Recover the amino acids of this structure.
């Protein structure tokens, strides 16, 4: 059985002269929370549409859990999707709406109602269960849409901007909710909030102009353990470090020392080498960061 939740091979899609996907190759392992990252127009929404069976690609293949493309008639509990512009039925009580959707997945009436109530509690909307959708704020509607995507325990969940419009407290709660599903199912989250993705994801895929330009685990992509950055208040002589540690590469720039190590080094080993020198030089060490951020990686790829 395949160890991949999603495998996209040579995926192509054009809208007239506009090329949305240009031979996209992506593999996402099972059980991870994967950030799907790229600028506007990179092809993220088109990719989700192809995986969800809403858009037919011009070429290439989609494989879900080793069973090929989604077949709606037999795809129950396999895949669910939250589109970026998800429309909800406006005049139906929220719990009745989710209960109906759960019934469509084959649940009994009691089981569907129970599942709907559980999902509403998870997205902090248990107290609004009897409100109609049109009575909810934008952020509340977004949370209902997240609850909808998690109905029926799907194995693969595609979430397009799931925390858009949520206040910081609820963003944190959604992050905790997504993390609680790690290992049980595969979540693929498209978002422009890279700090939020960095906090919850363990795998990332970067796409640009319809192609995958980088993918891997968070540690691989951000080079955690191989790159350390040190913020200092005062300038110091880099030769104190370069003379002692010729295996390491050092770059000083505007109060930030970046240290890159070869394979075999760890973050703690780099710190044990560099920090004593900075302290002895009275450089005024104020902050240490582990690896690059996703924002750093994004800007490297986008600039390239």
């Amino acid at each position: 059985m395949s160890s991949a939740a999603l495998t996209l091979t040579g995926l192509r899609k054009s809208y007239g002269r506009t090329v949305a996907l240009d031979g996209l190759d992506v593999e996402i392992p099972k059980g991870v929370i994967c950030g799907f990252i790229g600028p506007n127009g990179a092809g993220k929404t088109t990719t989700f549409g192809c995986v969800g069976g809403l858009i037919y690609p011009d070429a290439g293949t989609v494989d879900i859990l080793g069973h090929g493309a989604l077949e709606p008639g037999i795809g129950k509990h396999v895949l669910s999707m939250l589109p970026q512009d998800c429309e909800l039925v406006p005049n139906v009580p929220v719990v009745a709406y989710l209960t109906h959707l759960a019934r469509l997945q084959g649940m009994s009436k009691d089981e569907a109602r129970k599942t709907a109530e559980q999902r509403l509690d998870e997205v902090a909307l248990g107290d609004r269960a009897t409100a109609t959708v049109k009575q909810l704020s934008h952020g509340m509607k977004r949370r209902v849409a997240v609850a909808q995507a998690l109905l029926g325990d799907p194995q693969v969940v595609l979430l397009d901007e799931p925390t858009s419009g949520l206040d910081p407290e609820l963003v944190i709660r959604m992050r905790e909710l997504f993390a609680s599903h790690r290992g049980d199912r595969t979540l693929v989250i498209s978002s422009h909030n890279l700090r939020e993705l960095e906090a919850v994801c363990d795998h990332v895929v970067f796409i640009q102009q319809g192609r995958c330009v980088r993918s891997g685990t968070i540690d691989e992509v951000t080079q955690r353990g191989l790159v350390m950055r040190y913020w200092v208040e005062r300038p110091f002589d880099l030769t104190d470090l370069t003379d002692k540690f010729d295996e390491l590469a050092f770059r000083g720039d505007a109060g930030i020392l970046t240290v890159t190590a070869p394979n075999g080094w760890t973050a703690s080993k780099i710190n044990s080498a560099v920090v004593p020198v900075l302290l002895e030089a009275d450089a005024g060490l104020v902050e240490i960061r582990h690896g690059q951020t996703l924002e750093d990686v994004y800007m490297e790829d986008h600039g390239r």
Notes: The radius of gyration is 23 Å.
